[in-house]
Write a structure and sequence with these properties.
Strand order of the largest sheet: 5-4-6-7-1-8
Strand content: 15-25%
InterPro entries: Thiolase-like
CATH class of one domain: Alpha Beta
CATH architecture of one domain: 3-Layer(aba) Sandwich
Number of helices: 9
Protein name: RtcPhlas
GO molecular function: acyltransferase activity
Length: about 290
Amino acid sequence: MEAQNIMTDIGIMSYGIAVPYLRLPVKDTINVWKNNNVEFINQHFGILARTVVNSDEDTLTLATDSAKMALTNSSLKAKDIDSILLGSCSTPDIFKSNANQIMSFLSNKHTYFGCDIRSSENSGMSALALGYSLLKSQLSKASLVIGSDTLCKNIFPSELRESYTGAGAASLILGTEDILAKIVGIGNSNAAFSEQCRTEDSRFIRILANLNTAVIQEGLVKRCVNSINNVLSNCNLSLNDIDHFVFPENIGNIPHILAKALHIETFEDKKEFEKLGYLGSASPLISFLITPET
């Protein structure tokens, strides 16, 4: 008799969030460069201060702290994790596995799959999609997914985003038991265009497009709308079936732009990043993880 594959639910078993203790008010950065308006960032972007790392903090330490919290909140131990995925665009090492370094901080286990994902500032969500795929294909039973960035260290001094760009990490454990939130589907939409990049020989992330609005329209609005429509179609759902949306960026008018593009009439502005700033790969994961609690 042939064994039959029984499809089981895949979802989030536990999670953890870590952000630096230090804060830098938006006005302190703008007062140095005189390149922006404090009131505009405070009110229009909804950011009063940003997180900044101390001398003993980086992408890996924040990721490790959030991972330890996720494990503490789980019935699993570090030795039970058989895949670890780190989404980040500010990893300290380019040619060396940062995910493997984090795993070495958690356990002396060697029989696991480790992978760095550095495709964009939304790499945390890419890591989540890959983690889900590993469990869906039964190549993994318990996946530790991390989104971590220290953009405050990698943003070019005097760039317009500097005053509200911070640092943080979010980790979640994907599995098939004791699930807090079930993953029902994934939708994709990608393209290559002039956006933001950090080249091999550079510490700083730079904007390649003529205007940041071009990055928002091409990279966020178009891609988000397409991917959302794709996943809804794949799951036989409509916009009316969704109670809560979490977008890749949750500061400024970007959520409102995306809501308008999706024809979402009622929209509630959240203030969770008011004293955190934009956290790169961790931002959408943190917004997503806060949702079950609210």
